[in-house]
Amino acid sequence: MDYVENRMAQEAAKPTPSPEVQTIATPLNLVLLSLFLYILYRSFRPSPAPKLAPPPPAIVFRTFTPPDLLPFNGMNNQPVYLAVRGKVFDVSAGRNFYGPGGPYENFAGRDATRGLACGSFDEDMLTKDLQGPLDKLEGLGDEELEALRGWEERFEEKYLVVGRLVAVGDEDKEVEK
């Protein structure tokens, strides 16, 4: 029994812990708990719905004459269109190239067929008489026609065809197959 009494005396002699040590609600523990709860909240809260941009206006395939095509040169927030071999392409995505101030700006709103075939961006490559017939590409060699085919393929891969180009007075005629 001496052993048991000894043991009890030793435990009774131990100092009792202070009240700060006895509780788990210390300021540090409260800060850590708050941080943990905040992280949980941020991880599991529903995310707000993304704000979608309004859809671009619908583009309707239409028939253009050279005077109809002319306003689509990128000025006044207009889209940028150009024609190649009777197909009108919306090249607005390439506004830096085809729009105002771009290296190909002469072609914006115009028939660019001859200029692209000849590799020239000069004004004299453009049809002067917008009321007259379309360029029949007479006088172009095989090399120039091959270059034109390359340009046309590039445009078809990259840009949307939004219409066809016809001479003034031919708007109602059926497209030749």
UniProtKB/TrEMBL annotation:
GO cellular component: endoplasmic reticulum; membrane
Keyword Ribosomal protein included in the entry's annotation: no
UniProt-annotated stretches for the region Disordered: 1-20
Keyword field contains Lipoprotein: no
Ranges of residues in domain Cytochrome b5 heme-binding: 64-166
GO molecular function: heme binding; metal ion binding
InterPro entries to which the protein is assigned, alphabetical: Cyt_B5-like_heme/steroid-bd (IPR001199), Cyt_B5-like_heme/steroid_sf (IPR036400), MAPR/NEUFC/NENF-like (IPR050577)
Keywords, ordered alphabetically: Endoplasmic reticulum, Heme, Iron, Metal-binding
Chief localization: endoplasmic reticulum
Localisation: Endoplasmic reticulum
Record Pfam families: Cyt-b5
Family of this protein: Belongs to the cytochrome b5 family. MAPR subfamily.
Protein name: Cytochrome b5-like heme binding protein
Species in which this protein is naturally found: Venustampulla echinocandica
